Amino acid sequence: MSASPFPEVALSELASIKYGYTESASSQPIGPKFLRITDIQDGSVDWESVPYCAIDVADAKKHQLEDGDIVFARTGATTGKSFLIKEPPNAVPASYLIRLRLTGKKLLPEFLSLFFQTEAYWHSIEKGSSGSAQGGFNASKLGQLKVPVPPLEEQKRIVAVLGQAFTALDRARAFAEANLSDAEEVFPSILRATFSNTSERWLSQLPPEKPETGLVGRSSGRSKIATQTGGRSATTRPIQGDYGLCVLKPEVAARKGWAWTPLTALARLESGHTPSRKRSEYWGGEIGWIGIKDARDHHGGVVYETREQTNPLGIEKSSARVLPAGTVCLSRTASVGYVVIMGRDMATSQDFVNWICRAALSPNFLKYLLLAQGEEIRRFASGSVHQTIYFPEVKGFYICHPTREVQDEICTSLDRACAEAKKLTAFYQEKVKDIADLRQSLLQRAFAGELT
After folding, report:
1. Which residues, other chains included, contact 303 with Cβ-Cβ below 8 Å and sequence gap of 6+?
2. Distance between CA 392 and CA 231 in Å, rounded?
């Protein structure tokens, strides 16, 4: 940002600076409203939802918020966030807020509020917060902050021009964000329509092929490769799904040309494992090891490289397995629902269930079917604290599928739809960014004295 042509004055010379009140919030109307930083959302406050606090009359008078005050978040992840108070009810700020009240006639509250949105201001906050564990910015530091102070008439002009421009930008941003939200929903909607148990989108007159026994991909010759998982038997408790996935054979009939088949008849089920973290010699090598962060980074795609690698010794000395390229992996623990395909021979952590598809099942088709579940995948999980899809349920999975030929046709269409949806999403993401950049550019010009 260009150097300001306006004189700069320490904030302590322009405003009284006071910490908020320390008290517990209450839903009962036992005193004034108790404004917290969490009550300020997207530049506004829903005063009806703000709680109350118990405070005596003398303290209430000292802390009471007035029209034109600015509250400032002084700690935590929201440090530096501010809000201009307009026509407040009977209210006091909470302790993690600092109340600024301008004194004298040198500065307009609206002008100061605009300054608190500039890059120069946020740079000062970041610099002043460094070294603090919680990123704090106390009243003393705030008082030392230098604020540009142009003549009042210039302040009024800047506030008027930016106010009008920002109103238009806010409308444009809302429109772009709505379009972005719609764009982000395009592909999930296509997936749900494709795999819905009642969908007529993909019909085939051909009967489903009989599952074959051959596995997709070749093993690399390493020890303990593609060993079928053991453990408990499949559950006897049916769970109905809506998008081509159920636990046990569902009552709903398969669509014409499709069939409900146990997933274990179409793909070999494999588990994962983590070599001992206490043995450094088990880590580092050429064998990729997929963890939750890898699945999050590549959700819906193919994994070729992983954050961590193991080696033949780590595989040999653990229950980890090296699985072939093309294996489909589903995260099943605290982060339920990430889906990836192995781009090369790899292993996974125990947070995954993995399927090596036989010739009758396309790995890409299984990937898309699992992605179609979205948040609905959690209906197959259980657990009061951390939701987990356990192996008895996984062993009971049935999927609804057409022939391999039709699967490939579906996947080709979905690949194209996915690519187009990503382009559309990227377009509106760029629009939202452009609007934010334009807002910041106008602020920079205003405080550099270049606003015409």
Report:
1. 288, 290, 294, 295, 329, 340, 341, 342, 343, 346
2. 9
Q: Is there a contact between 290 and 306 (Cβ–Cβ < 8 Å)?
A: yes
For residue 255, what is the enclosing H or E element? none
Question: Could you tell me how far CA 93 lies from the centroid of its own chain?
Answer: 30
Single-letter amino acid, residue 247:
V
Separation CA 408–CA 361 (nearest Å): 9
- Contact (Cβ atoms closer than 8 angstroms) between residue 260 and residue 254: yes
Entry pTM: 0.78
β strands within 231-282, DSSP E: 245-247, 259-262, 267-270
According to DSSP, the residues that pair with 328 across neighbouring strands are 341, 355
Nearest alpha carbon to residue 101 among 4, 193, 11, 8: 11
Of the candidates 87, 101, 21, 104, the one whose C-alpha atom is nearest the C-alpha of residue 60 is 21
Q: Using the predicted structure, report yes or no on whether residue 203 has a pLDDT greater than 70.
A: no
CA dihedral 296, 298, 303, 309 (to 10 degrees): -40
Q: Which residue has the tokens 């120069």?
A: 120
265-306, pLDDT tens digit by residue? 999 999 999 999 999 999 999 999 999 999 999 999 999 999
Residue 44 tokens, joined:
């506004």
Buried b (16+ CB within 10 A) or exposed e, 130-141: eeeeebbbebeb
At residue 229 the predicted structure's pLDDT band, cuts being 50, 70 and 90, is: low
Helix locations, 130-262, DSSP H? 139-144, 152-195
- Token match 């429109």: residue? 175
The SS3 call for residue 98 is strand
E strands, 311-351, are: 328-331, 339-342, 346-348
Residues 6+ apart with CB under 8 A from 187: 417, 418, 421, 422
Q: Which residue has the tokens 């009240």?
A: 101
* Count of beta carbons in the 10 Å neighbourhood of residue 317: 14
The pLDDT tens digits for 106-136 are 999 999 999 999 999 999 998 887 655 555 7
Question: Strand pairing partners for 418?
Answer: none
